[in-house]
Write a structure and sequence with these properties.
heterodimer, A: mainly alpha, 13 helices, B: mainly alpha, 11 helices
Chain lengths: ~300, ~270
């Protein structure tokens, strides 16, 4: 037992060492940590905030100063509007932080759900095979050819009125299929391995085999996929929000902020520059981390390996 | 159409019309067919040019990166395609617009137009040049994503092929490096790209929605956004039908392309 423990620690160490030797992955990790930190402590850096506006009972233009100071002032540290102000005098820094929080949260949740669904469906199909497999793979193929963007946009009326959590589920529902296929093929080879066979012949129930024996053995695949999914989910969410099909106006996401800012992007670039820059940095660092993880877990793999 | 009849009945009415070639009326009581006919060519011009440009350039750059692996081009191109892949289409389009306005100011005349299909009241050669000037940015904003995407896959698949036996044999029988690469290497390495290309073509309509609305093109994508926002059900159905046909066609195209490129598939 103790030997096994040592081995697992050393494998973890090996992966960590490989990851930290990868410059771009480390860059991604640092950048993402900085962005996450900004999202967490941002609200404490400025007197204007979402929560404050909520307390004062202002619901719509939640970031507007109490005394109307006139809008469209450029970024400056003197008056405390680090990212400037918008047309209605809202503090762009407070808006951007709120949007960043929302986009990060949605991205994380979608990734967790979609990788979770992919793991469950893929492992079930790959382990049981037969009719279950055919039915599930039929579903996967069907969902793969559906243009998710169109469907989400059409459904937007419905999910916008019932809150952003529904958007998370829908985004996840259209995002898991390719991973599910990979998971299925991995499970198909795993199910013939001795330890799974032993478990099966000992009478361990199927559900338990899938959850306790199959899935932990695909952990690296799932971690990498989950990481990359965060970036993809943020891209889909901001895209929908940009067109007004995602997060609704009283609340903001990076996408809706960029949309608001682009109307006058040429004359007042600060309206969309910061949200746009943060969006690119976030997605970029997430994919750098994801690629770094893939190289660290599986140095032999070529799929997507850059360098 | 009213919302009192059961859904199936309404669908039957709509489908009956579609079979006879009538897509119904928009909420402004105009014919959907007419609108469809006007817009489809606008979109097709953008989609076909954008996707072909993206795929061809992407494949070429990918091959070049693979052949000069770890060279200056490979590294810098790898980083820039990574950045582009992390940038949503709408941001690419906006940044291109920014860039174009900056260039226009620098050179003193309008080289790139950022809104619309063409300037009205032009004819002949002027109209053609003017349309081209309008077209560069929207096409580029669609193509950039394609270039970044295809080049990464092409590079990986080319790297696999570069180390393969049959390429060494081709060199051994006396082909030059270039001949061996393009006749024997690229042909194998490009196979997975054919499928990607065909399917991404069907799904490009989403990308077109952003590009068209940002550059003020009245195409299918822009129509879709407008129709969803105004609950224009017949227009939305027509666009969804169009996308469905496009996806089916893309699947067919993928099969044909693969068969054309891969003799092993034809044998079966």
């Amino acid at each position: 037992m103790s030997e096994q423990l040592d081995e697992s620690i050393s494998r973890r160490r090996l992966i960590a060492r490989r990851f930290f030797r990868n410059k771009s992955a480390v860059f991604g990790l640092i950048a993402l940590s900085a962005i996450a930190l900004l999202a967490l402590i941002g609200p404490y850096l400025t007197p204007w905030s979402w929560d404050l506006a909520k307390e004062n009972g202002i619901d719509f233009n939640a970031f507007v100063e109490t005394e109307y100071g006139g809008g469209l002032t450029p970024p400056s540290f003197d008056d405390g509007h680090y990212f400037g102000t918008s047309q209605v005098g809202a503090d762009v820094f407070a808006q951007t932080i709120r949007g960043l929080q929302k986009s990060l949260l949605i991205g994380l949740l979608v990734a967790v759900f979609s990788t979770g669904i992919a793991a469950l469906v893929g492992a079930t199909a790959g382990y049981l095979l037969g009719r279950t497999d055919r039915a599930l793979m039929w579903l996967v193929d069907l969902l793969l050819v559906l243009p998710s963007f169109l469907i989400l946009a059409i459904l937007s009326r419905w999910y916008q009125s019932s809150g952003w959590l529904l958007l998370v589920f829908l985004l996840a529902a259209f995002n898991w299929m390719i991973t599910a296929r990979i998971v299925r093929s991995v499970s198909m080879s795993l199910r013939e391995r001795d330890f799974i066979r032993a478990a099966r012949y000992m009478g361990v129930p199927t559900r338990k085999i899938i959850l306790r024996h199959l899935m932990p053995n695909m952990a690296s695949l799932l971690i990498i996929d989950g990481t990359l999914n965060v970036g993809g989910a943020i891209l889909s969410e901001t895209g929908l929000s940009y067109l007004g099909f995602g997060v609704r106006p009283p609340d903001v996401s990076l996408g809706s902020l960029i949309a608001e800012g682009t109307a006058s992007a040429l004359t007042f670039p600060w309206l969309f520059m910061f949200s746009g820059g943060l969006l690119i940095m976030t997605v970029l660092s997430i994919s750098l981390i994801g690629d770094g993880l893939r190289d660290a877990f599986d140095p032999g793999s070529k799929s997507g390996a850059r360098k | 159409m009213n919302d009192q009849d059961p859904v199936l009945e309404r669908f039957a009415t709509w489908a009956g019309g579609v079979v006879k070639g009538d897509l119904g009326k928009t909420i402004y009581s105009e014919s959907v067919n007419g609108e469809f006919g006007n817009r489809i060519w606008v979109s097709f011009r953008l989609l076909i040019l954008g996707s072909i440009l993206g795929a061809v350039l992407g494949v070429l750059f990918g091959v070049f990166s693979a052949v000069r692996q770890y060279g200056f081009f490979d590294r810098s191109f790898g980083i820039s395609s990574f950045v582009i892949l992390s940038t949503p289409v709408f941001l690419v389009a906006i940044l291109l617009k920014f860039f174009a306005v900056y260039i226009n100011e620098k050179i003193g005349f309008t080289l790139f137009y950022t809104v619309g299909l063409n300037t009205p009241e032009l004819t002949g050669w002027d109209l053609f040049v003017n349309s081209l000037q309008h077209m560069i940015l929207p096409t580029l904003s669609l193509a950039l994503g394609g270039i970044a995407f295809y080049s990464r896959w092409q590079r990986n698949s080319m790297l696999d092929v570069l180390g393969s036996d049959h390429l060494r044999t081709a060199r051994a029988k006396g082909l030059t490096k270039r001949e061996a690469l393009f006749k024997h290497g690229l042909r194998v390495a490009i196979l997975p790209m054919a499928t990607f290309f065909a399917y991404s073509f069907g799904l490009l309509i989403a990308g077109a929605a952003f590009t068209e609305s940002i550059f003020g093109w009245y195409g299918m994508g822009e129509w879709f956004i407008k129709a969803v926002n105004s609950n224009d059900i017949n227009s939305v159905s027509a666009i969804v039908l169009f996308t469905a046909v496009l996806v089916l066609f893309a699947g067919f195209l993928a099969d044909v392309l693969t068969a054309a490129l891969d003799p092993r598939v034809r044998m079966r």
